[in-house]
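Moderator note: this is an archived Q&A kept for reference. The question asked for a predicted structure of one protein chain; the sequence and the answer are reproduced below.
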Amino acid sequence: MGEKPTAAWVLSLIGGILGFLGSLIYAIIGTAAVATMPMPGWLAGVGIAVCYWFVIAHLIIIIGALKIKSGEPKAVKTGGTLVLIFSILGGFNILALIGGILALTWKPTEAAATV
């Protein structure tokens, strides 16, 4: 394949990695805070669940970015859809959102599409 959606892949991957690291730090700090400080019962659980949801969402963004890197039109569309959906559901990650949009609007060159 000739042309690949490099900008979409790079933005999605950077957004996924930064979001994953940030949400993982928040999840660890939140879990430690709940273990050491008294908090209202259900509020602590909800906060930790949201932090871990963000961790999972950003892992899915990274998986979508790896699909985008393949350069195959169907895989690029699938990866772009994953990145777009989970960038919105995972805390509105702007870098990943732009990467997902770029992946969905990417068109392969004619030579690459016929291979």
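Archived answer notes: The helical segments are 6-36, 41-69, 73-89, 94-105, 110-114.
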